[in-house]
Amino acid sequence: MQSPAQPVLRERILLGVGGGIAAYKAADLVRRLREVGAEVRVVMTEAAREFVGPTTFQALSGHPVRSSLWDPAAEAAMGHIELARWADRIVIAPATAGLIARLAAGMADDLVTTLCLASRAPLVLAPAMNQAMWAHPATRANVAMLVARGAMLVGPGVGGQACGDEGAGRMAEPAEIVAALSAAASPPPLLAGRRVLVNAGPTYEDIDPVRFLGNRSSGKMGFAVAEAAARVGATVTLVAGPVRLATPAGVERVDVRSAREMAEAVFRLAPAAEVFVAAAAVADFTPKLASGSKIKKSDEGLSLSLVPTTDILATLGAWPERPFLVGFAAETESVEDYARDKLARKNLDLIAANAVGGSDDAFDADDNALLLIARDGTRVDLPRAPKSALAARLVAEIAARLPSR
Ligand code: CTP
Question: What is the pTM assigned to this prediction?
Answer without folding.
Answer: 0.70
